[in-house]
Amino acid sequence: MGKETGFLELDRQDRTYEAPTERLKHYKEFVVPHDPQALQGQASRCMNCGIPYCHNGCPVNNIIPDWNHLVYEGNWKEALVNLHSTNNFPEFTGRVCPAPCEASCTLNIVDQPVTIKSIECAIVDKGWQEGWIVPQPPEKKTGKSIAVVGSGPAGMACAQQLARAGHSVTLFEKNDRIGGLLRYGIPDFKMEKHLINRRAAQMEAEGVSIRTSTEVGVDISMKTLKENFDAVVLSGGAEEARTLDIPGSEMSGVRLAMEFLTQQNKRNAGDSEERAAPRGTLVATDKHVIVIGGGDTGSDCVGTSNRQGAASVTQIEIMPKPPEREDKAMTWPNWPLKLRTSSSHEEGVDRDWAILTKRVVGENGKVTGLECVRLEWEGREMREVPDSTFTLKADLILLAMGFVGPRKSGMLDQAGVEYDPRGNVLADTVSYKTSDDNVWACGDMRRGQSLVVWAIREGRQCARSVDEALMGVTDLPR
User: Residue 378 forms beta bridges with which residues?
Assistant: First the structure.
């Protein structure tokens, strides 16, 4: 695979970024891609591994060594065919996936993994530029109809696969545009939304009917879907955010991260302020912002706050600070626990770990600070450090503490499906069937808060199960 001695001759060289001083002036993507020749060199570093552990790390089972070799040989079109055989939307994962494949790469043992994510993104971007990516409508229709509810990456992948199998697919989305958290949760500076729009156009050309601004359980009942479709797929997200249950958290300056991020994405899409912020404008301009939660959503709040001109941004996390470098002997080829510094962190933020919030401080209902205490961790047990209480100055507190599961009111209550012990829709990863024989579930609604790449995998696998149940056999890949 690649050049046999490529990994010995070339060091890892990933994509670079536009300087923070420049990228903070806009909400566009700021990654500087490789030129094709440099990318071919990076692809040549892929080793002829006896066991390609990158397969173990990739949820959609991308055939990574094969398309690396094809890029090295300059056969970009065949590399695109190979890439699409496992992943409907590589331009999404090539931008926002944390790349567990690279953590699993054999060369990561010496901190020099192949730049898999960059190569993936370059393949699909070149495919669009060259006009190689076109609609793939089915040769014949099956006469079966399927409702897919929720248009995030799981719903999009499921709907596209089922349409290509010849079924009549209707994709329902409660928001005004499709994409789920890809659309309204991930900032434009990480993934511009025209990428979703052109996939939506492709899907419609393949026969998918897209119905936005239609909330199942409100605008249309689950009973109606069951009566009018041969199958229903629940592919919504895990939208129930974890809340902050401390004194003062009811103040107006304490807000959910998703509300903050969604408003800015709507503004970037050209929506009026009234449409973007129906509950009132939420911006960080000239404010001291505290972001609670150390994950990707928190990082996105940091980057958005800096672009809005925050006076200061502080990000706190309840867990202890991870090590700068992982223990290779303990974790490789699995996802390592180590300190991760995102591009948003590099733009300016104060970060602190092992912090427990105690109460929101305010005057006349207006947030002025956040009282915290430091923690000591012993294994999974935490205890407060005596006399360590301190108060952070704050005008706006953004809650980015993760999600606890799907919303139950409306659609799921009407569906009457069973839940697993964590409150997600109960369905296995073989059939993806719920407790109702004509209802399937996939993505975050089934597995809980997770990655875009896992959502795509589940959408594809669920589509195969639905196709097999309706037709008796299926040609869709698992």
Answer: 381
